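ok new one. same drill as before - structure tokens go in, u give me an amino acid for every spot. 537 of them this time. try not to just spam alanines like last time pls lmao
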């Protein structure tokens, strides 16, 4: 295949000259996983909701207010008439039951697309020979769509966060037909989904993640997202929301993606939660509120008398919930850009009344972040976002400016400790994300890495408990992004403390790349105009 491609390029060299920027082989996304499946209790919960049209105690319990956690302000927004009207959310998954009564009204049939078969058939797969083992995977698209836009008031399964929004059902992969069931998502299928109808879709929600650390994003999906942010939604930018993966994951590292994790019951750490400093926000992923351990979603077995599932949870559930909240915000403020939405999310986040509230720290800009890397800035309150929506309109550019600085090894090092310093004295702007790029020959020997800002904020980039089990896996990337310094000023002394086994390390190359809010034109000087500068100390 590679020879055929080369021959084609040679034959059409002058036709393609100056048009091809990069070529990358299409690959199956390694260990791409659909998150949020509770296998242990799935069978029991499904038996509980074989209602055949009748209501169980759990159904009646859901019909009670609040529908969603009071801390997220969703029910309160509904009372203000904010229900997602006029907003379209794309769910990128594997299969949907588009004629299910919970979904049919809100699925835009003109925006259903299967990027594998290149047609409009996005039917959820159902392997009858393995019905008990497969239903929980193959229903994943219905689950996510239900959280965003399930019909309200039909007394069936649930009410979506943005129950008057529309769903673009995009099937981007398939399943293997053997057991154990495996997801098959290619980068080509992913790219088609991310780039699909960017002028008609407002939000793209991806409840999937790679389970491999330092698995970079391929050029196709990366550029599809970049074009969407620049040109989508009439130039205001498509909003991309994704479930979190392990550290170094390309989707979590992206400056264009709102990365979401789940919060466990009563604000605990969910047992399958990833620790990642790139998380921006979280939501309650175990149930509809912080104290529930279930949520109802549309089942593809509706025709067999099983209208609902009650086994959906995790970051897969938290991600469409955040996408639904963003849909509510965009109904109220459709003029906000994708980047303004990110700033608004940080400003309207909350961490009160969680069992883990004590482990939130205040950064130098006054924003509280979770120091153990599971929750980002906490959870969203939609009504607070509405109240603060005017505070982000001064951020005009869709793409932040960047500047990179080199870290230098300071003082004596030993076999288990190294300290690197970067002194930033030509840049003093308001930060968004900080990306730490560590030479691969150094990275594989690190058991813990902590970055300290000039304002005293600390961010744990690598923790041995999360990293050592994967240390021998091949790494495509060597960058770790942190959101913990959001809003701080960049100038001053940055310190990176490394613990590990460094006996054989010869290259201690580390770069810090800052993304920041560009100063106003009258505040810019020659130093801040140059976003490619390197400072060596």
């Amino acid at each position: 295949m590679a020879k055929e491609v080369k021959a084609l390029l040679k034959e059409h060299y002058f036709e393609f000259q100056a048009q091809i920027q990069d070529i990358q082989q299409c690959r199956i996304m390694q260990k791409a996983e659909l998150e949020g499946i509770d296998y242990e209790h799935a069978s029991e919960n499904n038996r509980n909701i074989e209602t055949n049209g009748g209501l169980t105690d759990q159904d009646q319990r859901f019909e009670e207010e609040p529908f969603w956690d009071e801390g997220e302000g969703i029910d309160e927004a509904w009372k203000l008439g904010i229900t997602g009207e006029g907003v379209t959310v794309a769910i990128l998954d594997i299969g949907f039951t588009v004629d299910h009564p919970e979904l049919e009204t809100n699925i835009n049939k003109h925006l259903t697309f299967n990027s594998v078969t290149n047609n409009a058939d996005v039917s959820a797969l159902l392997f009858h020979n393995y019905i008990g083992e497969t239903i929980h995977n193959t229903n994943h698209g219905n689950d996510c769509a239900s959280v965003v836009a399930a019909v309200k008031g039909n007394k069936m399964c649930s009410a979506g966060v943005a129950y008057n929004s529309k769903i673009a059902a995009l099937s981007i992969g398939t399943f293997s037909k053997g057991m154990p069931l495996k997801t098959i998502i290619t980068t080509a299928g992913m790219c088609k989904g991310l780039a699909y109808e960017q002028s008609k879709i407002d939000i793209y929600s991806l409840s999937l993640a790679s389970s491999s650390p330092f698995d970079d994003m391929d050029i196709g999906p990366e550029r599809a997202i970049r074009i969407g942010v620049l040109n989508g939604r009439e130039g205001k930018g498509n909003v991309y929301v994704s479930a979190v993966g392990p550290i170094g994951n390309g989707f979590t590292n992206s400056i264009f993606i709102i990365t979401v994790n789940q919060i466990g019951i009563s604000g605990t750490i969910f047992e399958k939660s990833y620790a990642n400093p790139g998380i921006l926000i979280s939501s309650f992923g175990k149930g509809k509120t912080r104290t529930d351990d279930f949520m109802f979603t549309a089942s593809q077995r509706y025709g067999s008398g099983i209208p609902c599932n009650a086994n959906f949870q995790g970051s897969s559930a938290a991600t469409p919930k955040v996408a639904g909240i963003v849909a509510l915000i965009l109904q109220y403020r459709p003029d906000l850009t994708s980047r303004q939405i990110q700033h608004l999310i940080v400003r309207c986040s909350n961490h009160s009344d969680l069992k883990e509230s004590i482990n939130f720290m205040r950064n130098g800009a006054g924003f509280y972040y979770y120091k153990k890397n599971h929750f980002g800035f906490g959870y969203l309150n939609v009504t607070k976002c509405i109240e603060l929506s005017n505070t982000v309109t001064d951020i005009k550019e869709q793409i932040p400016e960047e500047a990179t600085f080199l870290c230098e090894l300071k003082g004596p090092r030993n076999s288990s400790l190294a300290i690197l310093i970067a002194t930033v004295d030509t840049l003093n702007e308001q930060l968004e994300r900080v990306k730490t790029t560590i030479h691969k020959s150094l990275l594989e020997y690190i058991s813990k890495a902590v970055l300290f800002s000039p304002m005293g904020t600390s961010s744990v980039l690598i923790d041995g408990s999360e990293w050592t089990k994967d240390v021998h896996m091949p790494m495509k990337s060597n960058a770790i992004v942190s959101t913990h310094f959001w809003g701080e000023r960049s100038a001053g002394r940055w310190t990176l403390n490394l613990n590990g086994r460094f006996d054989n390390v010869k290259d201690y190359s580390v770069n810090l790349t800052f993304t920041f809010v560009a100063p106003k034109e009258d505040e810019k000087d020659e130093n801040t105009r140059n976003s490619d500068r390197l400072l060596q100390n």
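Residues 36-58, 466-471, 526-537 have pLDDT under 50 and may be disordered. and btw The chain has two domains: 38-354, 401-529.
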